[in-house]
Amino acid sequence: MREIHLSAEHLAKFQASYSKSGSCWTWNKPLDRKGYGYIYVAGRNLAAHRVALVVATGDQLGEKLVDHICRNRACVNPGHLRLVDHKQNGENRAGLQRNNSSGVQGVYWDKQTSQWRGRVYHHGRHIGVGYFQSLAEAEAAVTAARKELFTHNELDRAA
Question: How close are the terminal C-alpha atoms of the chain, in Å?
């Protein structure tokens, strides 16, 4: 990725584009279709959360991703942002996959055994957690597995 450099004019434009209401600093300018803020600088659109981290730290981000700890994609508070790799970013995902029918991340009904099956996705492979009679048991098992295997899963750690 190309480095981010802001002129004094673009820095002022950036700082005028969000409001500090509550703990999140909400981007008040256009959002992309995924809900992330962006700012047009030097002929290109830059992700506002990436700009926020560069402005706060003075460091270039390189190929690293920026994870919203708060899960608010419009937030540009550097205290809510952290540099992560692709795997770590996926660990802090919110919500369920579209095809989930159990309502619990990592748990699905196994027709062959007539039991709930739990698994987690880690380092490019699915890891089976086990088969369970109740949805609650399966949920507890996958949550425990994620806590053991993942380093950036804020939702499980808060529970």
Answer: 36
In a 13 Å sphere around the CA of 46, the CA atoms on its Cβ side amount to 25
pLDDT tens, residue by residue, 138-155 = 999 999 998 898 877 777
CATH fold for domain 95-158: GCC-box Binding Domain (3.30.730)
**Which alpha helices (H) appear in the chain, and where do they start and end?**
8-15, 48-57, 86-91, 135-149, 154-158
pLDDT, tens digit (0-9, with 9 covering 90-100), for 105-128: 899 999 999 999 999 988 878 899
What is the residue-wise DSSP string for 77-99?
A: -GGGEEEE-HHHHHHT--S--TT
Residue range 19-30, pLDDT digits in tens: 998 899 999 998
Distances (CA, A) of 37 to 23, 42, 46, 70, 135: 17, 17, 9, 15, 38
The segment(s) of the chain belonging to CATH 3.30.730 are: 95-158
